[in-house]
Amino acid sequence: MDIDSPAYGKENSLKLDIPLKQPKDYFSKDNILTYIKYILSSALTLTYVIYILWGIFDGQAVLPVHPVVNFIIFCFCMTLVAYLEGLQVAILAVEKYSPDNMQDTHPRAYKLIKSVREGNNVERFLVGRQFFTIFVMTLIAQVTSFPEISNLGINPIVWFIFVQTGLPAALVVTTIGSLQPQLLAARDPWKFLDLYGCNAVLNLCYGMELTGICTHFAWMLVIILRHTLFITEEKPRTHNPEMSPAYYALEGLKFTVSFVVLMTYCSYIMWGIWTGQAILPVPFIVVFIIYCCCICFLSYLEGSQVAILVAEEYDLKKYEQSHPRAYALMVRAKTEKNVRRYLIGRQFLVIFVVFLINQCTIFPEISQLGIDDAAWFIFIQLGLPTALNVLCFAQLPAQLLGNQDPMMYMNRYGPRATMEFCIYAEMTGIAHFSWVVSSFSKMTWFRISRECAASPIKDPVIYKSNSSVMSTDNTHV
């Protein structure tokens, strides 16, 4: 049941057909285990919600603003994450369908889809969404990190593992802010798109994509990797826009700005880590190792997702001898429902790793170097350095490479272990509370229409959120 629930990944395809009811043994071993997972996940998540609210209203957050402001920021960010995640599922579910029949019943959804279907606006939204998802999570980390809060007499090792690594915020964001809106949007995408605020979030993503800050440095890094560590005969897909001198000038400016911004932020992060300013209570060399390992692991999570989902359509027999590790990985992935298990486990691990990275890159006591307080707050303390470094070093390059030659990517050491880690993370049931809270939402404010349940939309390619960056302005790569 839990594996079939989330609309995440190409494999699950939003099959909402209602089967004939069969007698169920509610007290079978498997069902009892599932109930235990729901109870433990719900208890742990609600405990973490209480912990976060306690820390915020006790004034323990590292973001230097009033507790009420921190609470407002937390609520706003959770809402924005929900919009970003739900829009991803809903837009990709209905983008190929004409919205004309929805003009009267879902006017806001009609307007949104009309905009999305113009040009490459789907890709523009998804690239902008990629940045805002990471940025909002780093901002949440600023208001949910409490380095001076009491550990309530709990064993320091237990406290470190279950609290100081960022697990509280990671689990709350995964279950309430990420998986829940995906589940709701999968059940009734038109209703989700018709919610107030969706068009504003869409335009916000368009604006970020236009700047080029969140993609151009990643393309530069990919070019280097394609000529050094990832040499492949596969050619990147390109398009050929009319390249005027003004076009080259604008693109050159974007590359320059992106490079300068990323190198500045990277230097800031290294400075903070090596001077022992991180809030993670371990020696600075350990912080540096954790940071590097998290960046590498996150790149595997991102690249493997794209590679696995793209390679699902391949004839694997052709690669059994030339790419043995990739072949074994895909055989394992296609066993039972392992692709879905992988995607669900990956969803939690990506968010958790991002929050752990934030514990390594939040420096509340670091010198401002004489920079104006307002500028420091906006460009540093809100989490931009971490967000852009994660996006441009760990996410986009891995996605681009995994899309270009998925079998070569998966044939390297690392992707198989990453997939197994995700599968076993899903098996723990740690994110099962998302089904509880989504069921509550469907019974209250998000009631599913009969028409949607009776006429399910088939096969939205959800993983396009990652692969879309490969089809947007690929002239550079």
Counted up, domains total: 1
What's the alpha carbon Rg, rounded to whole Å? 22 Å
Percent of residues in β-strands = under 5%
**Mean pLDDT across all residues, rounded?**
85
Distance between the termini: 42 Å
Shape: globular
Q: Which oligomeric form is depicted?
A: single chain
Helix coverage percent of residues?
55-70%
Helix and strand element order: HHHHHHHHHHHHHHHHHHHH
Low-confidence segments, given as residue ranges, are 1-21, 454-477
- Classify the secondary structure makeup into a structural class: mainly alpha
The helix tally amounts to: 20
**Major sheet attributes:** none
Summarize the structure.
By secondary structure, the chain is mostly helical.
Q: Can you give keywords for this protein?
A:
Silicon transporter, mainly alpha, transmembrane, transmembrane helix, single chain, globular, disordered N terminus, membrane, disordered C terminus, 477 residues, Silicon_transpt
